[in-house]
Each structure stands twice: as structure tokens, then as C-alpha cells.
From TrEMBL:
<dbReference type="GO" id="GO:0005576">
    <property type="term" value="C:extracellular region"/>
</dbReference>
<dbReference type="GO" id="GO:0099560">
    <property type="term" value="P:synaptic membrane adhesion"/>
</dbReference>
<dbReference type="GO" id="GO:1905606">
    <property type="term" value="P:regulation of presynapse assembly"/>
</dbReference>
<comment type="function">
    <text>Cell surface proteoglycan.</text>
</comment>
<keyword id="KW-0732">Signal</keyword>
<comment type="similarity">
    <text>Belongs to the glypican family.</text>
</comment>
<protein>
    <submittedName>
        <fullName>Glypican-4</fullName>
    </submittedName>
</protein>
<dbReference type="GO" id="GO:0009986">
    <property type="term" value="C:cell surface"/>
</dbReference>
<dbReference type="GO" id="GO:0009966">
    <property type="term" value="P:regulation of signal transduction"/>
</dbReference>
<keyword id="KW-1003">Cell membrane</keyword>
<keyword id="KW-0336">GPI-anchor</keyword>
<dbReference type="GO" id="GO:0098552">
    <property type="term" value="C:side of membrane"/>
</dbReference>
<keyword id="KW-0472">Membrane</keyword>
<dbReference type="GO" id="GO:0016477">
    <property type="term" value="P:cell migration"/>
</dbReference>
<dbReference type="GO" id="GO:0005886">
    <property type="term" value="C:plasma membrane"/>
</dbReference>
<dbReference type="InterPro" id="IPR001863">
    <property type="entry name" value="Glypican"/>
</dbReference>
<keyword id="KW-0449">Lipoprotein</keyword>
Length: 505
């Protein structure tokens, strides 16, 4: 009737009542199309973050249990009476991973200094040491290297591995939150009008079965998703940085290969201190002064008097608990790398992937038998470029290129900050922790898809980035080191126990 107008003339295509109905429906269809694609991506990042986070935490728990089991079997009461020193080490490592204000290098230096104080008392049971004297002893840790080269190597390995692991997990969480915020689209009035014209004007013209032309749909989506398109450049740089850190996790910064043999490495350091105790003590006495000698009766207590019987048996590394429910870091990284590559160019590919849906356009076939905005005919306009600036020439959507979406601008900045942290982690440099506790996980974003109900994977058409991973050999021959160190422990155990009776009686 008279209420029908021609869309191409700039008027409404239906009656006011029908226009209101179809406007809401077109916005709903558009949002659902964006959500359907982006929620798969969000779910991927959310699930991988959870897997990595659980793996890293369980790895720390198992490393602590392994060390405790090994040292109880090897040192018995000597260890149990000093176990808080090692417990504190793992407390600080866990606190660092979850975002605590921990300087890894200073914390590890403090651990070795405290261990030296304990060991120095044990190997010099005939002397009385004040707290001030032991503080002087700790100052010689770096100079005398009483534990050999283990502290230096372990500090380098632990710092690089923990920085990479924590930063990578944070990157997954940041990506998850960015997708959640950016995918919560709300088209402008001009965008809504363009969507209405594309999706429902044909209905009012009696062309119910005619779908929009592909390039026509492309231009409408490029206009409605102009700000999302601007995210793409920073997003791609972020993904590349994640892939680089992933390679580090596979190679020299592999936290699994660092934490698994940490008990053997610390035991080797203790053995080294015992072997060189006389030289170390003499140099300390020269620098800190000669300590006071204890009375003879206080130092001479027999082993038999205390009822001690050594029950030493070698510790076998294969007895270690299985880490992270039987999985490994290599498998986790291999999986997430493939998903990261698929996520490349997601935002610039989004308009095309929406239009590839048969519900949204006719596709690239039947280009002469589709809705072009005014009739069932070919669409002749060229496809506009991606991003906000290119929409000045968009023939279908009026876009104010002077007013960028501030929510998306903030997400661009969040990606930029995270990318800088990833680059630092790739170089082995510590980075500040990003607190994501108040960030939305995307489950309450109003996206219309609960994470548990969404497909855990995603696929879309985008150019994938390929790269070769130079995997380093991470096999650690811990059994030989354990046998060597522990055999020395057996020889010195009795002496240490005597000393221990005096100092921790």
C-alpha cells in the first residue's frame, strides 16, 4: 500500500510499526552473528587460560612434594627440622605466579643466604654464632660461591621460566577479556538503519526469499564493525608476541624442565657446600672474625646416645608424581599455538565471515539474483576498506569517523600494554603483573552465549601465520646427579646429624 516506500530513496521501507519491529530484529540478528563467532574465540582463550593456570599451579605443588619426599628420605630429621626454609621458597614462587609483589632475583638470593647460614652452623658445630655474625656470613654468599654454580644457573632458569609462564597465562586472560568487551556490539542509529534496509526491506517489497548480495552485506558489516576493524592491527601484533613466548615455553624457558629437577639441583648445591666447608669457613673467619668456641661437653654427644640409625636409600626421579593430570607443557603449548594462529586477523575477517553465513547473504554465487538494497539485481558498488577511516566512502552506512568507540580504544591500549610485557618476557626480563581479578571473563557480557554452552573451538576464514618452532632439548639427566649427590650425603650424614643435635636441640 501507500506505506511502502523505496529504500534506495532514503525513506523507510515499511510502515512505522513494521520498521520498529524489523529494526529490533535486525539489531538482534547482527548481534547474534557477531556473538556466534566471537564467543567461540572467547571460549578458546578462557579454556586455554584455565588449562595453563591449572598446569602451572599443579607443577609447583608437585615440585614441592617431590623435593620434600626426596629430602626426607635423604636427610631425615636434618631436613624436617629446617623444612620451613624450603617451604618458604615455594610459597614465594607461588605468590609470584599469582601476582604477588615478589622480586624473584632478590627472593632467590635470600633463600641461598638463609641456607648458607643454616649450613655454616652445621659444618662448624664447635662454634657459637650470633645473629650478627651469621648476617656477615650471608654477605659472602656471592663472593665465596659455597654452593658452586647452582644458585646462579637456577636463578637464571627460574626467573626466565616463571616470567614467561606467568606472562603467557596473563596474555590468554587479557585476550579473553578483550574479546568479551569488543564483541558486545551496539550498532549506531545509522548502522541500525543500514541493517534494516539490508535484511528486511526485501520483506516489505515482497521479496521474502531473496537474500542480500555478498558485497552489499560486506559493506554494511564493514560500516557497522568499523571500530572492531581498527583493533586488528594491534591484535595481530599481540598474537605474534604470544606465539614467540610460546616458543620460549617450548624451549629454553620451559618451566617444567626447570621445576622437575629442582630438588636434585638444590641437593647438589648442598653437597658442594659440604665438600668445600673447610675452605669456605676459613675465608669467612678471615672476613667476619674468629667465632667463640663452645665448651667441649656441649659439642661432644655420641650418635648412639641419641639413638640415631641412618636409613639412607637412593631417591629415584621416576618416583616423581605425575604433573597436571598426565599432560605436559609441550602438549599444552602445541595446542594453543594452533589456536593462536587461527585467531590471527580475526577482527578484519569478521565482516566477511558474517556474510559467509547463508542466513546473512547469498554468498558469492547468484550475484545477479540478490537484494542490492533497492531491487533484486546485481550489486555494483565496490567493497570499502577495513577500519574506521575507510568508512568515509562507505555507500551503505553513514559513519562518523571523528568519533571512535572508546571501549574499543581502551582494548587496543590493553593489547598494546600486554604486547610490551610479552616482548619483555620473550627476552627473559621480568614484567609487572596485570591484575585481571576485576576484569570481566565474558560470561556476563550480555553476549547471549554462556561459556559452558558455546562450542569450545572456533573456525573462520583468515590468513594463517605459519612459523617454525625451534624446540630445545629439555631432557634433564637427573638420576645421575641424584646418585652422585646422594652418595655424598650418606657419607656426611652422621657428621651433620651430630652438629644438628647441638644447634637445633
Amino acid at each position: 500500500g501507500d506505506h511502502l516506500k523505496v529504500c534506495s530513496q532514503g525513506y523507510t521501507c515499511c510502515s512505522q510499526e513494521m520498521e520498529e519491529k524489523y529494526s529490533q530484529q535486525s539489531k538482534h540478528d547482527f548481534r547474534n552473528a557477531v556473538v556466534e563467532l566471537s564467543n567461540h574465540l572467547q571460549t578458546m582463550f578462557s579454556s586455554r587460560y584455565k588449562k595453563f593456570d591449572e598446569f602451572f599451579k599443579e607443577l609447583l605443588e608437585n615440585a614441592e612434594k617431590s623435593l620434600n619426599d626426596m629430602f626426607v628420605r635423604t636427610y631425615g630429621r636434618l631436613y624436617m627440622q629446617n623444612s620451613e626454609l624450603f617451604k618458604d621458597l615455594f610459597v614465594e614462587l607461588k605468590r609470584y605466579y599469582v601476582g604477588g609483589n615478589v622480586n624473584l632475583e632478590e627472593m632467590l638470593n635470600e633463600f641461598w643466604a638463609r641456607l648458607l647460614e643454616r649450613m655454616f652452623r652445621l659444618v662448624n658445630p664447635q662454634y657459637h654464632f650470633t645473629d650478627e655474625y651469621l648476617e656477615c656470613v650471608s654477605k659472602y654468599t656471592e663472593q665465596l660461591k659455597p654452593f658452586g654454580d647452582v644458585p646462579r644457573k637456577l636463578k637464571l632458569q627460574v626467573t626466565r621460566a616463571f616470567v614467561a609462564a606467568r606472562t603467557f597465562a596473563q596474555g590468554l586472560a587479557v585476550a579473553r577479556d578483550v574479546v568479551s568487551k569488543v564483541s558486545a556490539v551496539n550498532p549506531t542509529p545509522q548502522g541500525t538503519r543500514a541493517l534494516l534496509k539490508m535484511m528486511y526491506c526485501p520483506h516489505c517489497r515482497g521479496l521474502v526469499s531473496v537474500k542480500p548480495c555478498y558485497n552489499y552485506c560486506f559493506n554494511v558489516m564493514r560500516g557497522c564493525l568499523a571500530n572492531q576493524g581498527d583493533l586488528d592491527a594491534e591484535w595481530n601484533i599481540f598474537i605474534d608476541s604470544m606465539l614467540l613466548v610460546a616458543e620460549r615455553l617450548e624451549g629454553p624457558f620451559n618451566i617444567e624442565s626447570v621445576m622437575d629437577p629442582i630438588d636434585v639441583k638444590i641437593s647438589d648445591a648442598i653437597m658442594n657446600m659440604q665438600e668445600n666447608s673447610m675452605q669456605v669457613s676459613q675465608k669467612v673467619f678471615q672476613g667476619c672474625g674468629q667465632p667463640k668456641t663452645l665448651a667441649q661437653g656441649r659439642t661432644a654427644r655420641s650418635v648412639s646416645e641419641n639413638g640415631f640409625t641412618a636409613r639412607f636409600r637412593p631417591y629415584h626421579p621416576e618416583e616423581r608424581p605425575t604433573t597436571a593430570a598426565g599432560t605436559s607443557l609441550d602438549r599444552l603449548v602445541t595446542d594453543v599455538k594452533e589456536k593462536l594462529k587461527q585467531a590471527k586477523k580475526f577482527w578484519s575477517s569478521l565482516p566477511g565471515n558474517i556474510c559467509n553465513d547463508e542466513k546473512m547473504s547469498v554468498g558469492t554465487v547468484n550475484e545477479n539474483e540478490c537484494w542490492n538494497g533497492s531491487a533484486k539485481s546485481r550489486y555494483d558498488f565496490a567493497v570499502t576498506g577495513n577500519g574506521l577511516a575507510n568508512q568515509v566512502n562507505n555507500p551503505e552506512v553513514e559513519v562518523d569517523i571523528t568519533k571512535p568507540d572508546m571501549v574499543i580504544r581502551r582494548q587496543i591500549m590493553a593489547l598494546r600494554v600486554m604486547t610490551n610485557k610479552l616482548k619483555n618476557a620473550y627476552s627473559g626480563n621480568d614484567v609487572d603483573f596485570i591484575d585481571i581479578s576485576e576484569e570481566s571473563s565474558g560470561e556476563e557480557s550480555g553476549s547471549g552465549c554462556e561459556l559452558q554452552q558455546c562450542s569450545p573451538e572456533f573456525e573462520f576464514n583468515a590468513t594463517e601465520v605459519t612459523g617454525n618452532s625451534n624446540k630445545s632439548d629439555k631432557n634433564v639427566n637427573t638420576s645421575a646427579a641424584a646418585r652422585s649427590g646422594l652418595s655424598q650425603a650418606a657419607l656426611l650424614l652422621s657428621i651433620l646429624f651430630l652438629a644438628m643435635q647441638r644447634q637445633w636441640r
